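Memo to structure team: turn this sequence into structure tokens by end of day. - J.P.
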Amino acid sequence: TCIVAGFDSDNEAHMAVIPKIMGEVLLCLKDSNAKTREAAYQLLLAMATARDDMTDYFRIVLAALGAQTTHMRSAAVMALSRLTFEYAREDVEVQELLPL
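Reply from structure team:
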């Protein structure tokens, strides 16, 4: 999360890193080590904060639902659940993404 804290949301090169590492972050959500899982969740939330555009961020995570492996699809569901839990109450942009 320290690396992501230094990201500038106006810098396209910084924002281009997020989709590239998302797959690894998602897979870490399914790791057997509890500390790895917690670090992955914290990184997922830190990247969401750095990414300003929540619609685009949700699309990046949603793309993992189309993965070939059930492991990755399950990780995407876990990530979407956590993001919804963290942001749906306060973030209007996330509220608009959810069905009524």
